[in-house]
Structures are given as C-alpha cells and as structure tokens.
Amino acid sequence: MAHNETALTTVATVSTELEAALLIDLLAEQGITATQTGGLTAQFRAEAPGGVEVMVLQDQQAAARAIIAENEALNAQYQSAVQDAEYTTSLRKFGYWTLIIGNAVALLILLVLAI
Hints:
Keywords: Membrane, Transmembrane, Transmembrane helix. By secondary structure, the protein is an alpha+beta fold.
C-alpha cells in the first residue's frame, strides 16, 4: 500500500469541540494545519458517548504528536503546581482558624476561672 501524504490521520481524541479547537490552534502556531471530526452532527448534538478527533496530514503526524505530548506535559506540571498552591493555602487557612479558635477557648477558660 502506497503512503499517501495527503491522507489525514488522527493525532488526538478529546471530549469537547473546545478542547479540539485549542489543540488545532496550538498546532497552527507551530505551522501544522489540523482539523476536527465529530462533535456537531447535522446541526444537532448527538447525546452518545464519543469524542472529537483532531486530524493532521500523515506527513505531519510525528511533529503534531510531539507538540501535543509536550503540551500535555506542561499542563500536568501546571496542574501539579496549582494543586500544591491550593493545598498550601488550605493548610494556612486551617492554621489560622486553629489559632483563632484556640485563643478563643483559652480566653473563655481564663474568664471562667476569673469568675
């Protein structure tokens, strides 16, 4: 079977058209033309499980997959940093409330003992 450089191949399957559009824009920034299939079907949304496929020309497949993999790695690092920041903030809030409640209890005990 001959290799057809104008044939499209799927490089990613995502859940929504928005995710597909973001990937298509990311690839376009790197000079790779991409398109999507799935999602909107004959002017109505099918309520069946599935996904939206992002497709590129076969000769651009390797470059597109590398860009998508790099983007996923960056997103994973960002999500990890966000989770760490949220955890630190939550821990700090817990510490503040513990301090406030502890001081209130101590003050109440002192007031009761003074009476």
